[in-house]
Design a protein that fits this description.
single chain, alpha+beta, Heat Shock Protein 90, 6-stranded mixed β-sheet, about 45% helix, phosphoprotein, SpoOB alpha-helical domain-containing protein, Spo0B_C_sf, phosphorelay sensor kinase activity
Amino acid sequence: MEKKIIRLLQYRRHELMNQLQIIQGYMQINKLELAIDKIGKIVEDYEQERRLFNLDIPKFTWWLFTFSLDKNLFPLKYEILNFSQGIEHLDHTILSKSKEMIEQLCNSVNHKQISEGKVKLIEREENMTIQIELLGDFSLLQKRQFNVKTVSYTIENNKITATHSVALHKKV
């Protein structure tokens, strides 16, 4: 476990250093607007991370952070929308459903076609939607929609999306 934590910290440090070097490069060539945009993107990424931590779903968070390290596949980003409180009671459900959806999506394409993935958690009144998008070159796949159990899938030119809703059952 310690080695995995060290690998994760090394990966995150490497990513941050890459971003800082890009900003430094923009500044050296007097592209201040690009540098400011890049800083804004970094701030937004850390805001998303804060939102993820505030959901209090440690198993799911660990899976997101170590996905690329474990599978050595593609980067998996995330976006947290509209949550007003923690959902720790759904940690296992969100993790298992997300893993199932990723597996189904990955089984429908060649892994080399995938450039990145994104997981969105969206709170809508009494429900939460898990949406997973894979981006890449899927131009040879036929555009279509289909359902597998409680998950709906959509295939378009450069994106495959899986969507599933979960009842929040807010704690009293």
